């Protein structure tokens, strides 16, 4: 509850929100508004600025600022008197988040969440920051001091506020030209990107940069696609292998339950920031499945199990995230002491587990506790012993208080989940998620961003939703041969081409009929998940490979050209575009595997999917509604594989050895 201007209590306006993050603030004494014209109309009526607070449900520092400031009655009273306060879930409204994060980084040199931005009545920012403490700390003013200074500026220095807001609005609205390249330049660019990545590679601990260290999912996919041979290609494979192994064996990976945390706070992958995000795990699932080998296959299987077990929703989709905190303490659910291991396993197994899983007496985390790591697999009988220890520790951990779950279903991230599950052979779960997205998220022919408990939310789908969901649907075509998914993907891509296209061949992140913000967001760089542009390039090129559509291939090439300079200068932020370019440079290779289900067809499919970036479609027989399958039949009663480029195919082969030779050409 909060108070209106006369002091009468009014309900917090977030009480009816669908976002779990907004609902976390529904009981705050702050008189929160949701983003929309009503909030700005109220600010204009009262002649006060708008305070915009952006975060997400699994955000640790968002929780801290909420406890310190938004749950504090004195702070809330000041906010209610001097501001109209608007709360936004960045995962529901990535368009709002993108515009004001650009303002925040422009004004402060850094970004992050919680994000705190103060706006005029037209939505133009004139102040921006991230987390503010409740008391002055380390040279940083308290949140209350910031609010008081902003109130003084709004009241007494209106001209200065207007000037700053106008400057920022002009900056945000500026759409500088994006330099492109030609197809002939891409081979050299792909080679240079490997050289650049090698300079930024951590030779000691793997990964890129120092700390904090994020899983470079899309860069790893690119490196796998260009690996093999000598020179830069050997270096690409070495960087990919080292990073995939280091992450799988470090504390960033849940050695008991599977799945990856959002990032490592240290250079060596030991201590994670413990929140688990769907988009990370969906992408890493696919990368590890394609990497293969005993470790890759195990991690892929465990990560798929984690996603289904802990993020799966009753409707068939996948929830967004698990919180980092348990009982208000970050990492409490996941960390162990030696004594806790002995309590759960007994003295002998407890001591052995501490040695194998790197649990030290002093602790590798906080309060004497350690994250679990697995530097090497035990040999011989130790393998079975480890499996038994993991099972018992997982059961013991299940008795702890679980982290909270953000159970909204985000279209783009569920598209990524479908792709990852298809790569790991989990077709049933992938199909269920695909059906949910089509049944619930497509309303009057247009894609919506979020749903919760099977009820679709209001936010419109942005570019990444269209690209990632279309790509997921196209992966379903490839593992099922069912043309319905081809039709559905085509519908989403046609919408994106009609509504999101930019004049230079690239894309905007919002549709031409979306809510007008102070700027129309357009960011081609990958972050923790693919950019809208790179996801569209993948989907468009895959659709073209399955259908032979020149229009979609041309659109993929035009969009890819707009990101070439970024890919050349900062390949770590263009990994998914580089991966698409690598596949397109090779065709991409198209493989139709046709025949009755069984060991022979399975063996051909496995071999086909080892080809980096290949588009592989599998079916019982020819299909006229999937052009790549048209006219493809068994050969002499045996399953056959057709290796094609631009739908022009070589003679079919029926053995794995012959398929390997055909793919090597």
Question: What do you see in this structure?
Answer:
- With 665 residues, this protein is α+β, with helices and mostly antiparallel strands.
- It is 48% helix and 11% strand.
- A hairpin with a 2-residue loop joins β12 (325-326) and β13.
- α11 (278-291) runs antiparallel to α12 and α18 packs antiparallel against α19 (483-499).
- The longest helix is centred in the middle third of the chain and has 19 residues, at 293-311.
- Give the overall silhouette: globular
Which spans of ≥5 residues are poorly predicted at pLDDT below 50? 1-10
Which range best describes the helical content: under 10%, 10-25%, 25-40%, 40-55%, 55-70% or over 70%?
A: 40-55%
> How large is the radius of gyration?
26 Å
Biggest β-sheet description: 5 strands, mixed
What integer is the average pLDDT?
93
| Residue fraction in strands | 5-15%
Structural class estimated from helices and strands: alpha+beta
Q: What's the N-to-C terminus distance? A: 69 Å
The counted number of beta strands is 23
Give the spatial strand order of the biggest sheet. Answer: 3-5-4-6-7
Count of alpha/pi helices: 25
